[in-house]
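for the recovery benchmark. tokens below, seq after
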């Protein structure tokens, strides 16, 4: 009985992490299934659409939603005490961002003829998701927050299954169904927001909000660039079909490492807050890098077998270098996840600002070089590896500067 209770307790304790994994698996399943029945150009357009909504989810409030997590307070009975000016600012920034991003997507990014109004409402539903997620995070409803943030991924995999079994006629038909889902999601998010009791008497100066917003904006902008630069660059330089192929391979060979990065980052953030030493950090890093290498080898073996069985569509001979580079990038991202946990748990705000400053300089330099020297998709991946390596090194140096080896 005790073991059973312990097991149930562990499941409840880590259920939010389980939901993160389920969201990633849903996204992977959708990406694989859509590739099976969409044309190469349509799959490229689908890949671009997913990239777009993933981008606006992270950057839709320009980092302002992070100010909620920092400055709002949770009172008795899960009442959120929030600054009225901050809430109004969030609403205005979200609407303005959705208007601008929808226009850019329709006019400058996408090649399809999907309605601008529909893209705007889809954008609004995705960006609004981040806001409601933040509210539920403040009141420690972590599992519900993860359901909210992954809902669109679950919807997408359901559409992929239906499309695979019953054959949607075109990508535009799928996007129409996603639009209907977005309308329902907006209604659901409004309902969930009204279920949270708010107070609007938190006194926060405009200066404090502005200072926090500036630093969160820089951090969020850096994260957005390092996560999505390669996708937009490949679409513009090599075309929609090549981008779709890249997106498909990234889903299979990079996405699992992204999930592992998030898991080790979350787990070690908790550990490093109370028990940090350079020796412990080095041990955790070595252990997870070795695990990532072994996992990468297993991933290649499994995916090769699934390709032989015609479950996956991977040209190993034609893309072997790309696959190796994806695995290298994935391992580096896992190491970065551990370093980011240590920085988040132990490094001072001043040191973090220095990291962001150097990150900007390195990122601008590397991307500027990429525009002139990149002539293949493999080169783009090498640029991404350099971006992640440079940021990881900055994090490691920051940790090293703050703590003596051997502590």
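predicted aa per position
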């Amino acid at each position: 009985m005790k073991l059973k209770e312990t097991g149930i307790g562990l499941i409840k304790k880590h259920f939010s992490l389980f939901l993160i994994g389920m969201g990633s698996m849903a996204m992977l399943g959708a990406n694989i299934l859509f590739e099976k029945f969409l044309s190469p150009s349509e799959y490229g357009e689908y890949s671009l659409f997913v990239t777009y909504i993933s981008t606006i989810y992270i950057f839709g409030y320009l980092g302002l939603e992070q100010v909620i997590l920092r400055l709002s307070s949770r009172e008795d009975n899960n009442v959120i005490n929030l600054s009225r000016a901050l809430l109004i600012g969030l609403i205005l920034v979200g609407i303005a961002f959705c208007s601008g991003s929808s226009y850019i997507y329709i006019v400058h990014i996408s090649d399809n003829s999907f309605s601008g109004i529909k893209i705007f409402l889809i954008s609004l539903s995705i960006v609004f998701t981040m806001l409601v997620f933040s509210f539920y995070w403040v009141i420690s409803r972590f599992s519900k927050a993860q359901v909210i943030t992954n809902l669109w991924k679950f919807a997408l995999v359901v559409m992929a299954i239906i499309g695979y079994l019953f054959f949607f006629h075109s990508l535009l038909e799928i996007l129409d169904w996603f639009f209907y889902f977005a309308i329902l999601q907006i209604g659901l998010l409004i309902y969930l927001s009204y279920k949270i009791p708010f107070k609007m008497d938190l006194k926060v100066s405009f200066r404090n909000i502005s200072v926090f917003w500036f630093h969160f904006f820089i951090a969020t902008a850096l994260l957005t660039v390092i996560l999505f630069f390669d996708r937009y660059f490949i679409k513009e330089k090599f075309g929609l079909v090549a981008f779709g192929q890249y997106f498909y391979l990234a889903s299979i060979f990079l996405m699992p490492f992204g999930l592992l990065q998030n898991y080790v980052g979350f787990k070690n953030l908790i550990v490093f807050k109370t028990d940090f030493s350079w020796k412990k950090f080095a041990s955790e890093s070595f252990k997870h890098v070795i695990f990532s290498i072994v996992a990468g080898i297993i991933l290649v073996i499994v995916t090769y077998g699934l390709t032989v069985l015609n479950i996956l569509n991977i040209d190993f001979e034609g893309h072997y270098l790309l696959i190796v580079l994806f695995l290298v990038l994935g391992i580096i991202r896992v190491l970065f996840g551990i370093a980011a946990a240590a920085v988040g748990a132990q490094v001072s705000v001043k040191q973090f600002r220095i990291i962001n400053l150097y990150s900007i300089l390195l990122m601008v330099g590397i991307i500027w070089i990429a525009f002139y020297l990149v002539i293949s998709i493999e080169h783009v991946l090498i640029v991404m590896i350099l971006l992640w390596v440079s940021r990881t090194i900055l994090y490691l140096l920051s940790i090293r500067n703050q703590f003596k080896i051997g502590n």
